[in-house]
From TrEMBL:
Residues 20-117 form the Exocyst complex component Sec8 N-terminal domain. This is Exocyst complex component Sec8. Residues 216-236, 302-311 have a biased composition (Polar residues). Pfam families: Sec8_C, Sec8_N.
């Protein structure tokens, strides 16, 4: 329009061109009004639809933005929860370990009392297991516990001296317990012979049926696996029965003593002690046997002299 008006030569041409343009504009406006009147319903529907679509798109954008924000916040919360759960899990493991240590400390505090009871009842294998495990715990996981230093020293001292008690018990069963059974058997035979007034000489000591460790080794060495007796099995297992007398079977008891010494790692000291005391103990056996034979002979002579009395 500006180019058309600027190329005109005079004012009349401009006015003419302006009037023509205004007329064309008015005609276009009238045509537009007619079209609007004709298509008012469709136009209104289209405008409303477009407005609705625009609102829905805007709402969807807002919702998507909100969802993204919620997802980011959930992600942060999940990270926090994961760290918190990991922290709680680690704390649970620590507390469980602490409780186990406290239970172990409580059990170890009762070891001296239980040890005295086992030693008094001669349950040496249980006492050795208890003492060795307690010392290992005190010198291992509980090494940093300062409150157990006195108990650690006490149990360590008991462990150092435990093998001496076991060696003494082993010697007692090797040399004294076995010969006492022979002496008691001889005395019983002597009493029976005196009751029946048997004037025959005192019978020799029967030592063929004694259950010595050497005989046990010989029988177990040459026997078949299926012919093992209950005594051999019990010795090999070396388990203590809390209801029976531990010294009832000397062979089993000595096997338990050897197993306890092995747990204490004192087998070399045991062998050396047995070798050092062998001659002395054998002399004591000869001395005791001589005394028993002399006492039995004296008693038998007294009985014979009393039987020859007139009264």
């Amino acid at each position: 329009v500006l180019r058309t008006l600027s190329t005109s030569d005079d004012v009349e041409d401009r006015e003419t061109e302006k009037g023509r343009l205004e007329e064309a504009y008015e005609k276009c406006d009238r045509d537009l009004d007619e079209l609007i009147v004709q298509h008012y319903t469709e136009l209104t529907t289209a405008i409303r639809t477009y407005q609705s679509i625009t609102e829905r798109i805007t709402n969807s954008r807002n919702k998507i933005k909100q969802v993204k924000e919620n997802l980011l916040s959930c992600k942060m919360l999940l990270h926090c929860k994961r760290d918190e759960l990991r922290k709680l899990w680690i704390e649970g493991i620590e507390h469980k370990h602490v409780l186990n240590l406290l239970d172990e400390i409580e059990n170890i505090k009762q070891v001296p009392q239980k040890l005295e009871q086992c030693m008094a009842s001669k349950r040496y294998l249980n006492a050795t297991d208890m003492l060795v495990s307690a010392v290992d715990s005190l010198e291992g996981p509980l090494l940093q516990v300062e409150g157990l230093s006195d108990l650690r020293l006490e149990l360590h001292s008991k462990k150092m001296n435990m093998h001496l008690v076991l060696i003494d018990e082993l010697h007692r069963h090797l040399y004294i317990k076995s010969t006492n059974r022979v002496g008691q058997r001889t005395k019983e035979k002597g009493r029976i012979s005196s009751l029946v007034k048997d004037a025959s000489p005192v019978p020799l000591m029967d030592v063929t049926n004694l259950s010595t460790p050497r005989k046990f080794l010989e029988t177990s060495q040459f026997s078949t696996p299926g012919s093992s007796s209950m005594r051999e099995t019990s010795l090999l297992e070396s388990k203590e029965d809390t209801e029976l007398d531990p010294e009832e079977n000397s062979t089993v008891f000595m096997g338990i003593l050897i197993k306890g010494l092995a747990k204490l790692k004192k087998i070399p000291e045991t062998v050396k002690a047995i070798q050092d005391r062998l001659e002395q103990e054998l002399k004591q056996i000869v001395k005791r046997s001589t005394t028993q034979v002399a006492d039995n002979g004296y008693q038998r002579g007294e009985n014979l002299s009393q039987e020859n009395q007139p009264r």
